[in-house]
Amino acid sequence: MSLSTNADEHQVREFTCGCCAAPAQRTWNFVLRDGSPHAVYFANSYNHGGQGHETWIDVILGSWGGENHSDHVTFGCRVGAVEDSPAPAATAVQACLDGSAGPLHGRTLSREEALAHPWITDFWAVVDHVLEHDPVVHPHLYG
């Protein structure tokens, strides 16, 4: 399985963090698997006023190419500092914690639902791809 994104489709929006009023960035794009639409991700990167870098990622998996989103499911994770680790770590969380859920997201999964879902491996593969290749997320978390 080969994942890719199209740099021409990558979107970024600046916003203000609701909890600390620090600048933040939201980035999103389609993810292709072997050249075909596979997922959409939304990643919110925060600095929390100098208190630490973290990114919250929602990944929508399902079929693409039409207006029917009935098979879509959205997974969520937080990537950031964790105790006793020099590198950021990813943890599954409730999807769309920022209140962004809409029809495109389909069913938003809780942490427990995500960990038991048959598409969890696809979700983590997309997260790994975002962490390695997104031009906002990668430098935000890894410098």
Short description:
By secondary structure, the chain is an alpha+beta fold.
Q: Provide the β-strand percentage band.
A: 35-45%
Helicity, in percent? Answer: 10-25%
The tally of strands reads: 8
Sequence of secondary-structure elements: EEEEEEEEHHH
User: Ends: how far apart?
Assistant: 28 Å
Round the Cα radius of gyration to an integer and report it: 15 Å
Overall spatial form: globular
Largest sheet data: 8 strands, mixed
Separate helix tally: 3
- How many discrete domains? 1
Low-confidence runs of at least 5 consecutive residues:
none
Mean pLDDT: 92
What structural class should be given to the helix and strand makeup?
Answer: alpha+beta
Describe the overall structure.
The structure is a single chain. This protein is an alpha+beta fold and 143 residues long. It has one domain (3-138). Helix content is 18%, strand content 37%. It contains three helices and eight strands. The chain has helices at 111-116, 120-133, 137-142; strands spanning 3-4, 11-16, 23-33, 36-46, 54-61, 73-80, 89-93, 107-108. Strands 1, 2, 3, 4, 5, 6, 7 and 8 form an eight-stranded mixed sheet that branches. A hairpin with a 2-residue loop joins strand 3 and strand 4. The protein is globular, with a radius of gyration of 15 Å. The two termini are 28 Å apart. 30% of the residues are buried. The mean pLDDT is 92.
